[in-house]
Design goal:
With about 525 residues, this protein is of the alpha+beta class. Helix content is about 45%, strand content about 20%. It starts with a helix and ends in a 6-residue tail after the last strand. The N terminus is likely disordered. One of its GO terms (biological process) is cell adhesion involved in single-species biofilm formation. It catalyses: 2 GTP = 3',3'-c-di-GMP + 2 diphosphate.
Length: about 525
C-alpha cells in the first residue's frame, strides 16, 4: 500500500506537472511560430517592396528622361530649319488614313528600333509637326536602350497632340499605328491636363494593351513646351513582369500592388480589371511592417511609390493558422524532446546566417558583393577618420568583356571573372577589400593609402591582370582603372566611388588599359 501511495505521489509530483506542461509548451511554441512566421513574411514582403520601389524608381527616371529630352529638343531647335529628309521619308497610306516615316536613316542606313506613324495622308505637314517628329526620332537611342535592356518593358513611346506616335520596339505599322482611340487610352487620359493639372508623372491602373500584349500599366510623363501640353512619353510594364517580382521569395499568402484609388495594379493570382481587393483606406490605416488582422484576414502594407502605389500582402486567417499547425505537428509529436526544439532553433539560425552570407557574397567569384563591400568598409572608414589616415578606392572594368562573351562564350567569360577576382585578391593587402561591383566591374578599398599610393597599386593591378589572365587563344585581358582618394568630409564611401567611376569613364574613353585619377579640388 505504501508503495502504491508513493507511486501515486510520484505521479502527482512528476507526471501530472509534466502533462500540464504539454499545453503550455504547445501554446508557447504556437506563439513563437506565429512570431517567426510574421518575421519571415516581413522579410520577404520588405524585399519585394524594395525591389519594386527600385524598379519603379528606375522606370520613372527613364520616363522622365524621355519627357525632358523631348522638351529640351523642342526648345533648342525651335528656330532651326526642319530636316527635309523627314518629308522625303514619309510614306502615305490613304486607304488606311495614316502615314509613316520610313525607319531607315538616310545617312547611316541604320534601321530604327521603333516605328513613327501619324494621322492623315502626311502631305503638307506643318513645321511644328515636323520638328516634333524630329524630336521624337532624336530619342532613338533611349528607346532602343529601353527595349533592348529591359525585358519587362513591353512598349516605350511618345505620342503627340499633333496626332502621331513613335513607338518601340518596331511593329508592323498595319497592325499598330496611330489611331484617334489612343487619346482615350489610360496612358494619355491620366497624364493630360484635364486629369493631371499638376503636370506630374503618373502611373495608370491596369488596362488591356491596345496593341494586344495583354494587361499592363503605363508610366506616363506629360511633355510641355512653352507651357503648352504637347504630348506624353510613356513606358509600358507588363503584368507578368510585376508578377515575377511579387512571386520573389517563398512567402505565405498573396502579394498585390494597389493603386491610390484602391484599384489593383498587379497580383500573383488571377486579375480582374477594376477589382478592388483591399477593402480599407490605406492612408493612416497601417504602419509599414505591421501585420494587422481585420476580420478573418491578415494584412501588411508597404509603400512602393509615395501616394500612388502600395504593396499589400494578404493572408487568410484559416490559411495562417493551418500553416502554423502544420509546421508545429512534428514538434508537438516530440513535445517532451527539448533537443528537437533546440535543433530547430539552431537550424533556423543557421539558415538566417546562410541567407546573410549569400546576400553579401557574389555567387560566381566567391568574393564580396556590393552590399557586403559597403558594409565591410564602414569599420575601416571610421578608424581612418578617427586616426586621420587617408584611404582610396579603385573602380575597375574589364576591357571589351562583352566581346569576350560574344566570341568565346559565357563559360569563358565566367572564367575570366573568376581569374580577375583571384588576381585582385592576391595583389592587395589583408586590410584592403575587393568586391565584384556588378557585371564586369570590380571595386577595391585601399585602407591607409593616399592617391599617389593608390595610383601605384592600380598600375600594379593593371599589369598583373594583363600578365596573368589570358583567353583560350593566349590573348591578354586588360583592365581600365579609376582612382579616387576619400575626402575628409566624405560621410560614406559612395561619393568616393562615384568620383572613381568618373575617372574610370575617362580611362575607358581614353583607349582603355589605363589608370586615370580623379583630380581632387580643395582637398
Amino acid at each position: 500500500m505504501e508503495n502504491l501511495f508513493k507511486e501515486a505521489r510520484l505521479k502527482r509530483r512528476i507526471l501530472f506537472p509534466a502533462l500540464g506542461m504539454i499545453p503550455i509548451l504547445m501554446i508557447g511554441t504556437f506563439v513563437y511560430e506565429s512570431w517567426q512566421l510574421q518575421n519571415e513574411i516581413r522579410q520577404v514582403v520588405q524585399m519585394r517592396a524594395r525591389v519594386l520601389k527600385d524598379y519603379f524608381s528606375r522606370v520613372s527616371s527613364q520616363a522622365k528622361a524621355l519627357g525632358f529630352s523631348m522638351s529640351d529638343y523642342l526648345a533648342g531647335h525651335e528656330h532651326y530649319v526642319t530636316d527635309v529628309r523627314i518629308r522625303e521619308r514619309i510614306r502615305s497610306y490613304p486607304s488606311r488614313n495614316f502615314f509613316e516615316v520610313a525607319d531607315r536613316d538616310a545617312d547611316s542606313d541604320r534601321l530604327f528600333s521603333g516605328s513613327l506613324t501619324g494621322d492623315g495622308s502626311g502631305n503638307s505637314l506643318p513645321k511644328s509637326l515636323i520638328q516634333e517628329m524630329e524630336a521624337a526620332l532624336s530619342l532613338e537611342g533611349q528607346f532602343q536602350a529601353l527595349t533592348d535592356s529591359e525585358s519587362e518593358v513591353l512598349w516605350a513611346y511618345y505620342m503627340s497632340t499633333q496626332k502621331f506616335i513613335y513607338i518601340a520596339p518596331k511593329t508592323d505599322v498595319f497592325k499598330v499605328h496611330f489611331q484617334e482611340e489612343f487619346f482615350q487610352a489610360p496612358f494619355w487620359v491620366s497624364a493630360s491636363p484635364g486629369k493631371n493639372p499638376e503636370r506630374k508623372q503618373v502611373i495608370t491602373d491596369l488596362y488591356d494593351d491596345l496593341a494586344g500584349k495583354g494587361l499592363l500599366i503605363s508610366v506616363s510623363q506629360p511633355v510641355y513646351f512653352r507651357d503648352r501640353f504637347v504630348g506624353v512619353a510613356a513606358i509600358d510594364i507588363g503584368l507578368n513582369a510585376m508578377r515575377r517580382i511579387l512571386e520573389t521569395g517563398d512567402c505565405l499568402g498573396e502579394s498585390m500592388l494597389i493603386a491610390e484609388n484602391g484599384n489593383i495594379v498587379a497580383k500573383t493570382g488571377a486579375v480582374v480589371l477594376g477589382d478592388r481587393p483591399f477593402p480599407f483606406k490605406i492612408e493612416g490605416a497601417f504602419e509599414a511592417g505591421d501585420i494587422v488582422r481585420k476580420d478573418w484576414t491578415y494584412w501588411t502594407v508597404y509603400e512602393v511609390r509615395e501616394n500612388e502605389i502600395h504593396l499589400v500582402h494578404k493572408i487568410q486567417f484559416l490559411e495562417y493558422i493551418t500553416f502554423i499547425i502544420e509546421r508545429l505537428l512534428p514538434f508537438w509529436g516530440l513535445v517532451l524532446t527539448l533537443a528537437a526544439v533546440c535543433m530547430l532553433y539552431v537550424k533556423l539560425r543557421a539558415s538566417m546566417y546562410q541567407v546573410y552570407q549569400l546576400s553579401h557574397t557574389d555567387p560566381l567569384t566567391g568574393i564580396t558583393n556590393r552590399r557586403g563591400f559597403l558594409k565591410s568598409t564602414q569599420k575601416s572608414l571610421t578608424t581612418g577618420k578617427r586616426h586621420g589616415k587617408p584611404w582610396s578606392v579603385l573602380m575597375i572594368d574589364i576591357d571589351h568583356f562583352k566581346q569576350v562573351n560574344d566570341r568565346y562564350g559565357h563559360g569563358a567569360g565566367d572564367r575570366i571573372l573568376n581569374e580577375v577576382a583571384g588576381a585582385l585578391c592576391k595583389s592587395v593587402r589583408k586590410t584592403d577589400f575587393v568586391c565584384r561591383w556588378g557585371g564586369e566591374e570590380f571595386a577595391v578599398f585601399l585602407s591607409g593609402t593616399g592617391q599617389e599610393g593608390a595610383r601605384e597599386i592600380a598600375d600594379h593591378l593593371r599589369t598583373e591582370i594583363q600578365a596573368r589572365v589570358r583567353l583560350d587563344d593566349g590573348a591578354s585581358i586588360t583592365i581600365s582603372v579609376g582612382v579616387a582618394q576619400g575626402r575628409g568630409d566624405d560621410q560614406c564611401i559612395e561619393s568616393a566611388l562615384g568620383r572613381a567611376d568618373q575617372a574610370l569613364y575617362q580611362a575607358k574613353a581614353g583607349g582603355r588599359n589605363k589608370v586615370c585619377e580623379y583630380e581632387l579640388v580643395n582637398y
